[in-house]
Amino acid sequence: GVEDGEDGEGRSHCMKRVCFLLFCITLMACTEQKLQQDMEPFPEEKLLYAERIRVDEIINPEQMVLKKQSILVTDSRNHDAMLYQYSLPEFKCIYKGGVKGQAEDEFQVYPRIWRTLTDKVYIGGYTEFSLKSFRMDNTYHLSFEKKYELPISSDIPNDRHIVRDSLSIYNETDKLAIKKINLNTRQEAGQILFEPDDHPEKYYYENNGIMIANDSLIIYAYVYKKQIDFYSVDSMKLCKRLVGDNIIPRIVIGDIENSLVYYDELVAGKRYFYARGQGKKKECIIEVFDYSGHSIAKYILDIMPGAFDVDEENRIIYGYNSEFFEDGFLKFTF
Length: 334
Hints:
By secondary structure, this protein is mostly beta strands. Helix content is 10%, strand content 43%. The protein has one helix spanning 2-35, and strands at residues 36-38, 45-48, 51-54, 63-67, 70-74, 83-87, 92-97, 112-114, 121-124, 130-136, 142-149, 158-163, 167-172, 177-182, 187-193, 209-213, 217-222, 227-232, 238-243, 265-268, 272-277, 284-290, 295-301, 308-311, 316-321, 325-333. The longest helix is centred in the first third of the chain and has 34 residues, at 2-35. The chain is globular, with a radius of gyration of 23 Å.
């Protein structure tokens, strides 16, 4: 008889656990729905036309990063000078350097600027797994501050960001993961994983996306879905999801021209973030949101800038596109 009682207790305990699990799953599903909201219509829509700014240097920028009133540019194809700095707004070249080589101040790999919203500049690529921080003074001069060793890993980091001067956050598109690394302990401190598709073409995965981070949020915009996720830097958990009217992807594997690309670049500003994409009409669209997820403005540019950054104070987008203008930069005033 005693055994019966225990058995009954065991069963009811088991049922409680199953119910609790079901409750958790339902809660997760409900929470995701509750966190989901429709993108607001944009209160401002505007066409922007490029002004061309000619420079003497022959460059093909991969990255453009605005710091104070200067812009840093990387070009890994030019082994004699892979790093440039221009003062704004006149685009005078105030630094040119960054040689490919094995010496301490040379780039064994190629320069990669890690984005951050502070006035510091973080540059990687001196060696495969190191990063240097620089301070920028009021004349925009960079002085070396500290070298960080990064954990050795097979990851291919994209969209590299530094937050709180102590965390590296990047998008591992190959593994469909966002990773957070503590720079001081050189340990992984969290990750967000996305569901892969059932085929080997990673570039065409439905959940493929691009990311940015500030001190509190990681923002992930999907390439093939009109969807932007907001995650907490601390917990790496979803805290908001913005969806447009069209989140059914149109992907033609191996054919980016006929796939519908919603977002292909993100830039984090101090006040707003800027999401570049093409949409149904294959235009160059930059959508502006605040960090609470409100729609601020939508700009349609006459020329698609490859690399770009935004001067929020002066309301200028700086960009580059070699097909339309090889001899310098593009400037859009909004």
